[in-house]
Design goal:
Helix content: 10-25%
Structural class: alpha/beta
Largest sheet: 6 strands, antiparallel, barrel
Distance between the termini: 40 Å
Low-confidence stretches: 45-61
Number of helices: 8
Radius of gyration: 22 Å
Shape: globular
Strand content: 25-35%
Mean pLDDT: 88
Number of strands: 17
Strand order of the largest sheet: 12-15-14-13-16-17
Order of helices and strands: HEHEHEHHEEEHEHHEEEEEEEEEE
Length: 379
């Protein structure tokens, strides 16, 4: 999006206190713009448990970081921009946390970050303040493009806006954005989406931005340093069960709850004689099956169903596509067999390791440039 298209727009920037969103603000200010900045604050309501059986402590679990807010404030001060703190804790814990806990309790593998973008950054924030702005700028590594006039189908009143991948395959975040709505994409602005991470870091250092040397966040969106298993334990507690070797049927130990483990997992098993890989879960019996080998046939799937496919802009995918089932740089070629009503059978060109129910299967074109959307794996 060129400067002329931004000149008369009201722009809100979501600052996290990290490098990426700070460079977003720099890029907009560099073009002569003066956006308003917002910091989304997330807290856990006291004593709340979506499962009704959480721990008894009544402390307030503060998931926002004082340092994050300090960094965001410093960057805003540098450029003379207004910073407003928006409290979205109620929406986060009642929507994203509820979604996550319901899925893991069923033995599925959810992605809280995907729903956080849809429900919080481009959802709850828009309801509270974002609706007053034409565009919402974030530090996502993604790009957008407007479909050319000649490519429009009959009866379309306006050209489609597409969510497209970043040139940085490692940092590309289109998979985390693949559940947003068309109206959210229309308001989305990704000022650093066309950059490589190294370039963003160089800008932050050159401009002496406060977060220039901060490490990238590795955790779940808004949870900061809080461990994912601790997050789950807070709401679901523990439910011990057997861990059994798939090939022999031998019991090798006990787990603390099937929801702490996902298909393909290697780290965190804590059993001798490893490495062990989670290859199967029996939710009814509360049993986790593991294998010594990363490559047992049962750990791979080449054909699997997805349901509830969400098209970002209304355009359904073609038969020949590429896909991702987790956040990796690789795009996997596949063929889609439509079953109607947003259901597909995915026929991957080669077997895929660690396909787990509940994961989002994100669909791209064969050039892995345009993202169509995503559906949930249902095996």
């Amino acid at each position: 999006m060129i400067l002329e298209e931004l000149a008369n727009k009201r722009i809100a920037v979501l600052l996290s206190g990290g490098v990426d969103s700070s460079v977003v603000l720099y890029e907009l200010v560099r073009q002569g713009l003066k956006p308003d900045c917002f910091y989304i604050k997330i807290l856990s309501p006291k004593g709340r448990s979506v499962a009704g059986n959480g721990p008894e402590e009544q402390d307030e679990w503060d998931c926002s970081s004082e340092e994050d807010l300090e960094m965001a404030t410093a960057v805003c001060h540098k450029y003379g921009c207004q910073l407003e703190v928006i409290d979205c804790h109620k929406e986060y814990w009642e929507q994203v946390t509820t979604y996550t806990m319901e899925k893991v309790r069923q033995g599925l593998t959810p992605n809280p970050d995907v729903m956080c973008n849809r429900l919080i950054k481009f959802g709850a924030f828009d309801e509270k303040r974002g609706h007053e702005y034409d565009l919402i700028a974030t530090g996502h590594y993604a790009t957008t493009e407007i479909e050319e006039q000649g490519a429009r189908g009959k009866g379309q009143e306006a050209p489609k806006k597409w969510l497209c991948t970043s040139p940085d395959p490692v940092k590309d975040q289109t998979d985390f954005l693949a559940q947003i709505y068309d109206w959210q994409l229309k308001k989305a602005l990704f000022p650093i989406g066309h950059m490589m991470k190294e370039e963003v870091r160089e800008i932050a250092e050159r401009e002496h931005l406060a977060p220039a040397h901060r490490r990238d966040s590795q955790g779940i969106c808004f949870l900061g340093k809080i461990n994912y298993n601790d997050y789950i334990r807070r709401y679901l507690g523990e439910q011990p069960g057997d861990v059994i070797e798939l090939e022999t049927g031998k019991r090798i130990g006990q787990h603390k709850g099937h929801w702490f483990h996902t298909i393909g997992q290697r780290k965190g098993m804590g059993f001798g004689g490893g490495p062990w890989f989670v290859v199967k879960k029996d939710i009814e019996q509360n049993i986790i099956y593991v294998s010594h080998g990363y490559d047992p046939q049962t750990a791979y799937k080449q054909d699997f169903p997805i349901h509830g496919f969400h098209s970002i802009n209304g355009q359904m995918p073609p038969d020949q596509v590429t896909l991702k089932i987790r956040h990796t740089p690789e795009f996997l070629p596949a063929r889609l067999e439509s079953q109607g009503e947003g259901r597909y059978i995915v026929h991957a060109d080669t077997p895929i390791h660690g396909v787990a129910p509940g994961q989002f299967c994100v669909i791209y074109d064969r050039q892995h440039h345009r993202c169509y959307g995503s559906g949930e794996i249902t095996i």
